[in-house]
Design brief:
about 475 residues; mainly alpha
């Protein structure tokens, strides 16, 4: 299944509308548009954070629709995003004068009070908004706003109750469903989430977002069979619902079904605008399927969406390292480190890569940095010790491992590595003593000796000692 480029059906029409407006503005030409089209242009600029341009659109719109409560409220909304609360209040007051029964105006006023640090006053406004609601859909939106206020007050139980009430008025309110799922997950109330969504689905069995939420709850409970069943319903109801495909991809990846996971991730990219983490997941599937070229291509796509996505640079470096392409691996690791220099993993990776190309000083520096950043990870001690041996500095290598012995007294790897080092510098007695310590701690781990030094397999004395500790 191939990935298609995301395309929004109305995007081309929107661009044409924006160009029409901009040409009229540039040439000082008259242009009359209805409120909906003005809102579309404003939202376009808002999405791109071009708030001043959005304000100019609204100025023109209000000249033509001076009695529109909606446009006055929209003007206030954009002013709030520019932290111009005093000016926004004027337009909210004007909107309320024009239409005292407009619920959206009250919601916007509550937003402004919340921004101004007045959550209790915001709740009072929203209680008034509930009294003037004309239908259940409006009540659902008001309770969604009430959830915002409680979230600001850090009253998380009330947040969940407000969202549940919102859904009682409109079971298909997608924003309420999404936020309820998130709050259940953050509070780790997974069983409560299961019960709520199952009850909701009993009354609204074709609610694909509720099925998706139910799957998330079961995933958190590690009931993967139930999660898979719920996702099956979500996709059957709405085949183009990208989040369900993404979560199904996660589930299949956990089950090591990488080809199926890949199909779902590609579907998620097809049905919605891709994001860098999704491209990364696709790359991981291709990696598991040993299609490293395609994996690297999708990592580059991820980086194309976010040039600061250091995890993708690091993974790209790892894939080059697998193929012994150390020059490109180093280049990728350098990019990751430029963004995230405090990562022990990145410093360790580039240190090992430097060793492979003979850049020994850089290698030691990077591996020492990794060790200093994360001394709790024994691999950083081992990598640094091996690097010292690589540059013929056994004294430093043994010093690192002796210190590691104090930090990790029960780790057989420390003694096996010391045995290798002592053997390499001709201290047979010390080598055999450390070999015996390693064998007593963990016999099964002795095979790492051959990873450290392949010649040990032909060392008769080492082999005899190992045989003595072998359990019949």
């Amino acid at each position: 299944m191939e990935e298609n480029e995301f395309s929004e059906p109305s995007f081309g029409e929107l661009i044409d509308l924006v160009r029409l407006y901009e040409n009229a503005e540039k040439n000082h030409e008259p242009l009359f548009l209805d409120e909906d089209n003005y809102e579309r242009i404003v939202r376009f600029y808002e999405e791109n954070r071009e708030y001043n341009k959005a304000q100019r659109v609204l100025d023109r719109a209000l000249e033509q629709h001076r009695y529109s409560a909606f446009l006055h409220t929209l003007k206030a909304e954009i002013l709030v995003k520019q932290n111009r609360l005093h000016e926004a209040l004027y337009f909210i007051d004007e909107a309320e004068k024009l239409d005292p029964m407009d619920v959206n105006t009250q919601i916007m006023r509550a937003d402004m009070l919340l921004w101004d640090g007045q959550p209790h006053e915001a709740l009072q406004v929203l209680q008034h908004a509930l009294q003037i609601c004309e239908d259940d859909l409006q009540k659902s939106d008001v309770y969604l706003e009430i959830a915002d206020v409680y979230d600001n007050m850090e009253k998380y139980d009330e947040v969940i109750e407000a969202l549940k009430t919102s859904l009682r008025y409109d079971a298909y309110n997608e924003e309420a469903l999404n936020r309820l799922m998130l709050n259940y997950m953050l509070s780790e109330r997974h069983w409560e989430s299961v019960k709520f969504h199952e009850a909701l689905l009993d009354e609204h069995p074709y609610n694909h977002v509720a099925w998706y939420n139910l799957a998330n709850a079961y995933m958190s409970l590690k009931n993967y069979e139930k999660a898979h069943e719920a996702l099956g319903y979500a996709i059957a109801i709405a085949e183009d619902y990208a989040p369900a495909h993404g979560l199904c991809g996660d589930l299949k990846f956990l089950m090591s079904e990488y080809a199926t996971a890949l199909e779902h991730y590609l579907d998620a990219a097809k049905y919605d605008k891709p994001y860098c983490e999704l491209y990364y997941k696709i790359a991981e599937c291709y990696t598991r399927l040993n299609a490293l070229g395609k994996a690297r291509a999708y990592l580059r796509k991820a980086i194309g969406l976010d040039a600061h996505y250091h995890e993708a640079y690091y993974r790209l470096g790892e894939l080059y390292a697998v193929e012994d392409n150390w020059t490109k691996a180093i280049s990728a690791f350098e990019r990751a480190l430029k963004i995230c220099p405090e990562s022990a993993d990145y410093n360790s990776a580039i240190g090992i890569a430097y060793l492979r190309v003979g850049e020994n000083e850089k290698a030691i520096h990077a591996l020492e940095t990794a060790y200093q950043l994360d001394a709790e990870d024994i691999s950083n001690w081992i990598n640094l010790a091996l690097a010292y041996m690589h540059v013929n500095n056994p004294r430093k290598a043994l010093q690192v491992m002796t210190e590691a012995e104090e930090e990790f007294p029960g780790y057989s790897e420390v003694f096996y590595l010391k045995a290798v080092f002592y053997r390499d510098i001709g201290k047979r007695r010390e080598a055999l003593v450390n070999l015996q310590k390693g064998l007593m701690l963990n016999f099964e781990m002795h095979t790492i000796l051959y990873d450290f030094d392949e010649e040990i397999i032909n060392d008769v004395e080492f082999t005899e000692v190992i045989q003595q500790y072998r359990i019949p």
